[in-house]
User: Which sequence fits this backbone?
């Protein structure tokens, strides 16, 4: 994780987060935030575009004795790469796979 943030900070020198909300429950802290920055250095093979980017993230951290001991996070790197022009969706073809179907619930499972 530290290496990834090193790459991001090199690529986006003005990288910063806006925290929308943060909740603590026992030894866990959950944060919903949006990251912002300007693409001034290479990132994952994409040359600097000088574009302003943003992407959202939800992080859960376990804190013990004032230190983060575990981290779980969900971000949107696809959105980031699309903003940089580093990923474009594949063109649709006639032989594309059919859309996936959600599994049906068993009678013992309740829908929430």
Assistant:
């Amino acid at each position: 994780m530290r290496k990834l943030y090193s790459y991001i900070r090199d690529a986006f020198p003005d990288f910063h987060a806006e925290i929308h909300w943060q909740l603590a429950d026992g030894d866990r802290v959950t944060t919903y935030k949006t990251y912002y920055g300007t693409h001034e250095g290479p990132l994952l093979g994409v040359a600097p575009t000088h574009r302003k980017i943003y992407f959202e993230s939800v992080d859960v951290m376990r804190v013990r004795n004032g230190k983060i001991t575990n981290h779980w996070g969900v971000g949107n790197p696809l959105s980031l790469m699309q903003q940089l022009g580093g990923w474009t969706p594949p063109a649709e073809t006639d032989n594309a796979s059919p859309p996936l179907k959600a599994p049906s619930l068993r009678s013992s499972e309740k829908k929430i």
